[in-house]
C-alpha cells in the first residue's frame, strides 16, 4: 500500500510539473513572439531590403511596416480608447492611475515608441524613398515621405488621477536613460554627430503658466506667459489650448525622410548617365553605334545643340536650388549635423489628423 501510495503521489507531482512547464512554455511563446513582434521584424526586413536597392528601383520594393495602435489605460481588465473603436489589432498598455507614477509610465511609452520607430526605419542611415529623377538628375522637386510607425491614444476616463498637465516628453527624453544603456533617449537617437533628430508636438509638452486678468468690465484680457527668465510675452488666448481633453489628442509617431540633390551631384550623375549609355550602346551594337553617337555629339556642339543644352542645364540647376529650399523648409526646425538643405531623417510626434500629418508628409507608405 505504501509503495502504491508513493507512486500515486509521484504521478500527481509529475502531472503538475508537466502542466506548469506547459504553462511557462505557452506564456513564453505568447509574450516573446507576439503579432507585434512579427510585424516589427517584417517591417525591419523590408526596410533593409529597400535600403540596399538602387535608387531608381526602390519603388518596386514595398515597405511592409504596419502602424501599431496603442491604447494607454488604467484598467486592469478592459479599458478602451474612443479613438480605436471598431478597429482591430489594438495593443492595450496598463499604467498606474496616480499623479507621478502614472505620468512617468505614460511618458515612457511615448519615448519607447519614438525610439522603436527610429530603430525600425534604419536610424536615418539608409535612403528609403525613391525620387530618382529629382534626387539624381535634378528633374522635378523632392518632397518628404513618411511612415506612420504608431498611433497612441489615452483612455481618459480611467486615468483621471494622472497629472497630464505636467507632461513633457522632451524633458523626459533628455533626463531618462534608454533601458540597458548609459545614454538618454535624446543622446541615443541623435547620436554623436547629431545625424538626425526628432520633434514633439506642443500637445505633449507641458502647458505654460498663464495668468488671466480682467478689465473694469470683468472681461478677460490678454494672457501673459511668464517664463523662467521672468521675461513677459503677450500671446493670443485663442491660440492656446489649455483644457485637459485638448491636451490628450490621439498622437502619431511618424518617421519622415527627405533627400535633396546637390548642384555638382546632378552634373556628375548626368555625365555618368551619358557615358553609361555610350558604353552600353557600344557593347550592344558595336562600332556602328559609335558612328551614330559621333553624329549626335556633333549635333550637341552645334549652335542649336548648345542653346538647348544651356536651357536644360539652367532648368536642372534651378530645380536643384528649389529642391534644396524645399528640404530646408521641412528640416529647418530640427537640429542636424549637415545643411538642412541637403535633407534629413526624423521621427516626429504629431496629432493624428490629416492637417497635422500633411504639414510634414506628402506621401505616406506602409500598412494601416
Descriptive overview:
The chain has 368 residues and is of the alpha/beta class. The protein has two domains: 34-207 and 242-274 and 310-365, no CATH class; 208-241, no CATH class. 43% of the residues lie in helices and 15% in strands. The chain contains ten helices and ten strands. The strands form two sheets. Strands 1, 2, 3, 4, 8, 9 and 10 form a seven-stranded mixed beta sheet that branches. A hairpin with a 5-residue loop joins β6 and β7 (232-235). The longest helix has 31 residues, at 2-32. Residues 206-216, 219-246, 273-286 and 288-297 have low confidence and may be disordered.
Number of domains: 2
Secondary-structure element string: HHEEHHEHHEEEEEHHHEHE
> What are the low-pLDDT stretches, counting only 5+ consecutive residues below 50?
206-216, 219-246, 273-286, 288-297
Helix content: 40-55%
As a whole number of angstroms, the C-alpha radius of gyration is: 29 Å
Largest sheet: 7 strands, mixed
Strand content: 15-25%
Global structural class: alpha/beta
What's the helix count?
Answer: 10
Average residue-wise pLDDT: 70
Shape: globular
Distance between the termini: 66 Å
Secondary structure: number of strands: 10
Amino acid at each position: 500500500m505504501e509503495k502504491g501510495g508513493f507512486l500515486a503521489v509521484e504521478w500527481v507531482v509529475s502531472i503538475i510539473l508537466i502542466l506548469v512547464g506547459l504553462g511557462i512554455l505557452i506564456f513564453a511563446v505568447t509574450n516573446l513572439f507576439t503579432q507585434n513582434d512579427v510585424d516589427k521584424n517584417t517591417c525591419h526586413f523590408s526596410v533593409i531590403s529597400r535600403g540596399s536597392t538602387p535608387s531608381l528601383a526602390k519603388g518596386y520594393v514595398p515597405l511592409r511596416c504596419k502602424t501599431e495602435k496603442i491604447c494607454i489605460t488604467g484598467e486592469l481588465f478592459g479599458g478602451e480608447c474612443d479613438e480605436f473603436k471598431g478597429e482591430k489589432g489594438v495593443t492595450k498598455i496598463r499604467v498606474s492611475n496616480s499623479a507621478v507614477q502614472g505620468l512617468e509610465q505614460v511618458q515612457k511609452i511615448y519615448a519607447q515608441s519614438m525610439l522603436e520607430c527610429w530603430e525600425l526605419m534604419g536610424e536615418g542611415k539608409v535612403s528609403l524613398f525613391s525620387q530618382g529623377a529629382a534626387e539624381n538628375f535634378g528633374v522635378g522637386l523632392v518632397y518628404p515621405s513618411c511612415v506612420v510607425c504608431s498611433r497612441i491614444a489615452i483612455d481618459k476616463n480611467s486615468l483621471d488621477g494622472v497629472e497630464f498637465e505636467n507632461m513633457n516628453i522632451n524633458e523626459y527624453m533628455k533626463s531618462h536613460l534608454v533601458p540597458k544603456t548609459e545614454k538618454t533617449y535624446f543622446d541615443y537617437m541623435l547620436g554623436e554627430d547629431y545625424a538626425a533628430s526628432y520633434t514633439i508636438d506642443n500637445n505633449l509638452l507641458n502647458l505654460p503658466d498663464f495668468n488671466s486678468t480682467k478689465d473694469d468690465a470683468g472681461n478677460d484680457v490678454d494672457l501673459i506667459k511668464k517664463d523662467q527668465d521672468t521675461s513677459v510675452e503677450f500671446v493670443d488666448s485663442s491660440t492656446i489650448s489649455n483644457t485637459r481633453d485638448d491636451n490628450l489628442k490621439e498622437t502619431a509617431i511618424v518617421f519622415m525622410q527627405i533627400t535633396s540633390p546637390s548642384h555638382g551631384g546632378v552634373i556628375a550623375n548626368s555625365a555618368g548617365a551619358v557615358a553609361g549609355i555610350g558604353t552600353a550602346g557600344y557593347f550592344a551594337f558595336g562600332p556602328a553605334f559609335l558612328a551614330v553617337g559621333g553624329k549626335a555629339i556633333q549635333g550637341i556642339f552645334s549652335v542649336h545643340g548648345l542653346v538647348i543644352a544651356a536651357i536644360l542645364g539652367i532648368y536642372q540647376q534651378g530645380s536643384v536650388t528649389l529642391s534644396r529650399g524645399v528640404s530646408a523648409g521641412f528640416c529647418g526646425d530640427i537640429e542636424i549635423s549637415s545643411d538642412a538643405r541637403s535633407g534629413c531623417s526624423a521621427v516626429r510626434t504629431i496629432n493624428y489628423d490629416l492637417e497635422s500629418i500633411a504639414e510634414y508628409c506628402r506621401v505616406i507608405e506602409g500598412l494601416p
